[in-house]
Amino acid sequence: MSKRVFRSFALAAIIASPATAATPAERVSEAHFAATFTAHAALPQMAAPAPGAVDLDTFDPPIEEAQVARVIGSGTASYYGAKFQGRRTASGEKFDMHAMTAAHRTLPFGTLVEVTNPRNGKSVTVRINDRGPFHGNRILDVSRAAATELGLIQRGSGTVELALLD
Asked: How far is the CA of 121 from the CAs of 54, 63, 117, 147, 150, in angstroms?
């Protein structure tokens, strides 16, 4: 118990004592202290700007325009996943169900398509890398990752809207 009291007393003494105690020889007069700041109060003259320099106070950076989307239609989309993982797609690359890719019957490989689920308003951008779907009246097969983002996993398929990105 006495150790605890001693520690508390020592801690209180440390907190109460000043962080740096100056000796009389180290004390600086107020006049000297103020003089050190007044000597540096004047700023040097600013150099003239170089020809063609941009005034950053009046400069408005260019705003990047969003990609232009051209609506190409709507229809039913489904998804494919684990059963096809690692198999070759029609474009020659391996299918990755975790990538944002899709299969379409006619769009060129590499085409970027914005797919929107009108039921929940969610949309993703997918890259066409395969052919299909060849089942029913579906217009698109998306990867599992894209289907998850769109909210199609539970139902297996759903109505989507497609737009080409330029």
From this structure: 42, 25, 5, 13, 8
- For residue 46, with 0-12 CB atoms within 10 Å meaning exposed, 13-18 middle and 19 or more buried, which class applies? exposed
> Do 124 and 115 form a contact (C-beta atoms < 8 A)?
yes
- The span from the CA of 115 to the CA of 162, in Å, is 5
Inter-residue contact 128 to 102 (CB < 8 Å): yes
Rg (CA), the chain: 34
Q: What's the mean pLDDT in 73-98?
A: 92
Q: What is the pLDDT of residues 14-28, one digit of tens each?
A: 666 665 555 555 566
pLDDT tens column, 26-85: 566 777 767 666 666 567 787 888 888 877 778 777 887 777 789 999 999 999 888 889
Neighbours of 135 (CB within 10 A): 10
Sequence-separated (6 or more) residues with CB below 8 Å from residue 129: 89, 90, 91, 93, 95, 101, 102, 103, 109, 110
